[in-house]
Design brief:
Elements lengths: L1 H11 L4 H19 L4 H18 L1 H27 L4 H15 L8 H21 L9 H9 L1 E2 L2 E2 L8 H6 L4 H29 L8 H21 L4 H24 L6 H17 L5 H13 L5 H12 L2 E3 L5 E3 L27 H6 L5 H4 L19 H7 L6 H10 L16
Length: 433
């Protein structure tokens, strides 16, 4: 059933069989002169070269795919908010989504463009190899090239053989069923494993782990679904198509590794690793030596308080080494070598404003300061306001003359206010007449 579907789709892209076969024949002339025209190396490397040529042409689309995937991840919180706000109005929800895409310059289909553009060439190659298996001249492949391609074996498996071929079909191509199934099984496993590793690399290294979004769950699901799909479809692909798909998976994996290491997603583990290496390089040379290094430092400095943890760690590492990053991306030696940034992006060495201590009620009433130690050297000591008992022999004298005690009533109120809070009032002793 899968084979019938693939054949039907291949017929749609039959118009590409002529350019695809022409490219393969041109590469076959080169490799045939080196390895021999009827060898599997000549035909196999011709298919590999076809893949490389197509993928080089698709590099701009691949870069656009990486940027689109990153933008989609960053937009997930806003998309989720729109869905919750207009959950009862699907039309308004779609309008707001399209508005968000337009404002941010994001195209959801950009992440699928490389696969969509490459698929016609894939099915055209499948059509060419199916014609070789059936002994039909197709495209620019004439009878002599057809005979040469049918003789070509890759590790004992004919170029047009499949895992599901019968023993009679394989024997007609001059090979054994065991060789064909072993070679195709190994290639299918490698094809699925490379697809899984490529997706896993994207999820574990180039995703901002601080943002948990449904997009991450979708990508994680695809990480397991795609290899299974290739596993079941691979048994219906000719060996030449498996060579094509395995080559394109390996190319994608290497290309993605390069892009992630050079331009990682902010907040991802790839950015942490990249900044650690950049910090060691800059500290060892006390300068940014390349344009790329200057651009990275310039971008981090321009963020200011919006830096993530890895970027703050990078700036702090330069400060500890006695270096300071400048707005133009250069690095100069700094005297403030121990200056470290706090989590909010400010310098930890900068003194922070402190609120004055709140005085107690007794201190406010008595007029004393909350920090008497600081004023003890400059201001003279004030006399104590506590009430002192007069001697017994002076008490009757004070009564007889009618003189008021020192301090008067004001002195008594101040003395009482100077008492400690919570203490009972002093008992008055009876004076002897």
């Amino acid at each position: 059933m899968i084979s019938d579907i693939v054949n039907a789709i291949s017929g749609v892209f039959a118009f590409l069989t002529t350019p695809v076969s022409w490219v393969i024949v041109q590469f076959h002339k080169v490799f045939g002169a080196i390895f021999g025209p009827d060898t599997g190396w000549a035909w196999g490397l011709s298919i590999v070269s076809l893949v490389v040529l197509i993928r080089i042409c698709l590099i701009p689309l691949f870069v656009k795919q990486i940027k689109s995937t990153r933008n989609m991840q960053l937009l997930q919180p806003q998309m989720k908010a729109i869905q919750e706000r207009y959950k009862n109005d699907k039309q308004r929800q779609s309008e707001e989504m399209m508005k968000l895409y337009k404002e941010t310059g994001t195209n959801p289909l950009s992440s699928c463009l490389p696969i969509l553009v490459q698929s016609p060439f894939f099915f055209a190659l499948y059509h060419v190899l199916a014609g070789i298996a059936d002994g039909k001249k197709i495209g620019v492949i004439d009878q002599s090239l057809l005979d040469s391609a049918q003789k070509a074996h890759i590790f004992g498996a004919p170029l047009a053989s499949k895992f599901m071929d019968s023993a009679a079909e394989v024997q007609a191509m001059g090979a054994s069923l065991t060789d064909v199934r072993v070679v195709t099984a190994v290639m299918i496993i490698l094809m699925s494993a490379s697809q899984f590793y490529t997706q896993r690399q994207l999820m574990t290294k180039n995703v901002d782990l601080t943002v948990k979004t449904p997009f991450m769950q979708q990508q994680k699901m695809l990480m397991y679904v795609f290899p299974v799909i290739f596993l079941f479809m691979g048994i219906n692909f000719p060996v030449g198509v498996l060579v094509y798909w395995l080559t394109t998976n390996v190319w994608t994996m290497g290309q993605q590794m390069y892009v992630i290491s050079r331009n990682p997603t902010p907040g991802s583990k790839a950015q942490e690793k990249m900044l650690e290496g950049l910090q060691k390089h800059v500290v060892s040379h006390s300068a940014t030596r390349t344009k790329r290094e200057k651009n990275i430092v310039k971008a981090i400095v321009s963020k200011g308080r919006d830096r993530n943890d890895y970027e703050r760690k990078f700036i702090n590492g330069l400060s500890k080494a006695g270096l300071a990053a400048q707005t133009d991306g250069s690095v100069v030696k700094s005297s403030a070598a121990t200056e470290v940034l706090d989590e909010d992006g400010t310098s930890a060495g900068t003194p922070k404003r402190q609120q004055p201590k709140r005085q107690s009620k007794s201190q406010r009433q008595s007029g004393t300061s909350a920090t008497p130690a600081a004023k003890s050297d400059s201001s003279p000591a004030k006399p104590s306001l506590e009430k002192k008992d007069a001697p017994e022999d002076e008490a009757p004298k004070a009564k007889q003359t009618g003189a008021k005690p020192a301090g008067g009533s004001n002195g008594r109120s101040k003395a009482r206010s100077g008492q400690r809070k919570g203490q009972p009032p002093r008992s008055k002793s009876s004076s002897k007449k």
